[in-house]
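retry 2 of 3: previous attempt timed out while embedding FE2/S2 (inorganic) cluster. Reduced batch size to 1 and resubmitted. Inputs unchanged:
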Amino acid sequence: MSVDNPQRIDTSKLDEIIKEYGCDKSNLIAILQKVQEVYKYLPEDAMIYIGTKIEGLSPATVYGVATFYAQFSLEPKGKYEIKVCDGTACHVRGSMPVLNAIKARLNLTDGQMTTHDGMFSLETVSCLGACGLAPVVVINGKVYPQMTSDAIRIVLDTLLKEGR
Ligand code: FES
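retry 2 succeeded.
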């Protein structure tokens, strides 16, 4: 992580967020949540800036918190955030073929989380709390129950048409 030039992002927006939540290190998670809401991820420059603005923190501390919690992403997310549940119930009922169908439809290679056009990002989660609807996929907060490979391809095709 570089600390040379944390000015590549709009620091006035970050100042607004820090002011909104208070310049206290106990508010760091809330501040990071808001930053992620604004940018759809946690830009490195934002973490550096926050780490230098809040007393008792450092950029390394902010980075440590951001990487500890799974809710934070250090990479930009797509317009459509796809979460595929791979908890036990979903796994047993076929979440892996659904996941593979998504990767194939979006041309995502192994380890690639976001499509090159920035439209879709994909992640697996351990349980979405809707095991009775397994296998479950959530896209931008909308739950798609009892997914199959064919069904998710139809959903993606619809989003692809809407999103372009
Ligand atoms: S295991 Fe998938 S919702 Fe619980």
